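Hi Y.,

Following your request, here is the sequence exactly as I used it, all 151 residues.
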Amino acid sequence: MKKAGFTLIESCLVLLIASMVIAIGIFPQKQTVERHQEKIFYEELKNGFSYVAMKASVKGTPGQISFMVDEPQRIVFSCGQMSKSQRVIVKLPETIRFDEQKNVVCGISDKGSLTPATVRFSSSLTKTSYRLTLQLGFGAQYRITPVRSKN
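Below is the corresponding structure, written out as tokens. Let me know if you'd prefer a different format.
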């Protein structure tokens, strides 16, 4: 009597092919997620600068931008005597790290102009170092420029 069904070898072959297809799909997905996290970081950075400059000029109190190099690395935007819930905290994604050895604090006047400062950070995703330059001027002016590629 012949029984209907699959042999053990056929079942193992199907599982092997399915696991290979899944493995091929996971690696590009991880890189896509990391790229998206970096894009979100840059948008949050832009929004944080705008927020603190606006708060400083509207409240008429000085603010500050703190680049915190201790773990977890983050950027804290605050103005006057803001409570912790009113501060804007932007955490760096896993692919971005500050190159600085100590915290950098940049002041914002009550008119919204910045104290000049420069902060360097690196992206392991793009293998590039960047320089974030805080410039004098109203509205929290800043510029991010690539410095060099890592070898």
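The chain has a mean pLDDT of 85.

Thanks again,
Q.
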